[in-house]
Design brief:
- By secondary structure, this protein is α/β, with parallel strands linked by helices.
- Strands 3-2-1-6-7-8 form a six-stranded parallel beta sheet, sandwiched between helices. A two-stranded antiparallel sheet has the order 4-5.
- The two termini are about 30 Å apart.
Amino acid sequence: MAALGWLTPRRRSATARSVLAGEASAEAARKTSQEQEELESLAAQAAADEAPVDETPAEPEFPVVGDDKAAAFFDLDNTVMQGAAIFHFGRGLYKRKFFERQELARFAWQQAWFRLAGVEDPEHMQDARDSALSIVKGHRVAELMSIGEEIYDEYMAERIWPGTRALAQAHLDAGQKVWLVTAAPVEIATVIARRLGLTGALGTVAESIGGVYTGKLVGEPLHGPAKAEAVRALAAAEGVDLGRCAAYSDSHNDIPMLSLVGHPYAINPDAKLRKHARERDWRLRDYRTGRKAAKVGIPAAAGVGALAGGAAAAIALHRRRH
């Protein structure tokens, strides 16, 4: 539940917080992916003789089959999944009575303010993150992981973009590792990566002691520059060449991550990223309908608090039902 808040002392620089968040996320991602690799190796050996043929067409020139020094990094929200993962996760937590209607109203107002104003006021954001973190403080990590599995089935499974999923599969078929990179909590990001058959996930890391959340973050939300630091740290640990890697995102906030790799892709891009990508001759893919594709460039406050988007969704659902 790491994306729920930002409790890093103010005396530390933004760069230092980004590096800490990136390194923590990379360490968590490698640990979970190693466990997943062991399970997949056993499953692959057992099913080798009857494995189904994957008919998903790969990109014509990229990725390069057999290039084990390459990997792929995919943003999650609006790149792999329609909408924000934390939005759907918040709906699931509200359904399970993790917070009350009064808290919902507060989170919804904070989220609406950031979206409409497009301004990240530090004190306002700190208040939103502190409030959201208090919801999961004291809950066990295993509990949230289990709930994440249920919420994926309820709200997320049908919202995966087939086109982006095919791009990820092309990298897997080429023998490369594929990682999600998101500001969402690393726990829910790991659930999504596992369900999609990916290598693992880089996400915001929350502090836990004895398997129980303390209500604090390790570093800051994995957003913007912190994503780039996480990818850099993971690439160094995995021994891959970033110049041969690919990265995919819909948001201009991820330009630092996209600029790290030799093969950047703009997927369902917002207006700023589309302009940036065209100026640098980056590849573009848009899997939205015409109407949805027009709805880009709306300011969003990444890392406002993991449940803020979910709060807005829950209020909307409540109003429709009553």
